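**Backbone description:**
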Amino acid sequence: MTTEFTVGLRAPEASVGTATAMKAVFVRDLKTAFRQPQDLLNPLLFFVMVVTLFPLGVSPEVSFLQQAGSGILWVAALLSVLLSLDHLYRHDFDDGTLEQLVLQPQPLFLLVLAKSLAHWVLTGLPLVLLAPVLGVMVHLEGNSVAVLCLTLLIGTPVLSLIGSIGAALTLGLRSAGVLLSLLIIPLYIPVLIFGTGTVMAASEGASVEGQLALMGAFLVLALTLAPFASAAALRISLSNS
């Protein structure tokens, strides 16, 4: 697999080579994930279980679920993404592919961006697709469900991009999952607040354009800065391993 991956990164021209390398990284991560379906299913099952069990453990009243439903779904989505972050670089680190990735002539931050995109496609996008069904389960109205899906569509890539920084920093450490949670959850709080607040504003009939614009700004900022930070963190982790 490592040999095929290295060959896929080679190209005669720098511009074509970068695009080819990003595609190779993206496709390889997808193929690797589908060879280990438990890593794909665990976050989704966790997402469904949290949303399903919350009404049983707190209150099944319709008025309460309509008020708290957006928060329940967003917290469950956040924790589901966090659950999958430990595998973002772990398998590549174990089989030596990550060292090959760092040694490639292409910019490392673009290859990291491709890995983060693959992580979102495998983890965040399924959560967005499941959200309408679970939104109806917690008695959200049609407009609120649509806004919920839109906020998750904007917000979950931010979670993957920010999470890649923590996954890179904790690479190779013992008890990395606990440390990863402590590092990343505070950075997730603004996305959680605005994602939940946007859905609540929509349920009250208020305008949500401002909140959506802020979430879009979060996404642009994460796309701009997170790949550079993740690439630097990977170099630090590999130099210390």
